[in-house]
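Q: Could you predict the 3D structure of Protochlorophyllide reductase?
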Amino acid sequence: VRSFAQRAGDVQRGTAALQTLRKDLGEEARIEFRRLDLADLSSVRSFAQRVRDEGRPLHALVNNAAVMLAPFGRTVDDLEVTWATNYLGPFLLTSLLTPAVVAAARRDGDARIVNVGSE
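A: Sure. Here are the predicted structure tokens for Protochlorophyllide reductase:
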């Protein structure tokens, strides 16, 4: 995970995806790319708090379990890296942001949480 982040693959891919979405949906679409270390639970809590503090509706949360075949390692929370990144981090993030997604759905009629994984 750390070596992937150090290569800036997450930032480059996120920025490219954001540009594609803006092109497809138009510049008025309010889409953001934000960095988050799902392997660090304090980072997840801090990220979720910042999102909640902004008070804006959260219409979509997409969790993508994309770390695979990483060498065995431990996170700062002493958890196995792949499990923490692909499961526990997204679970915590979803738990912390679900109220914001529910509020957006009540207000605007539509919101969703999407979890993506692979074999």
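Q: Anything worth pointing out?
A: Residues 60 and 95 are 14 Å apart (CA to CA).
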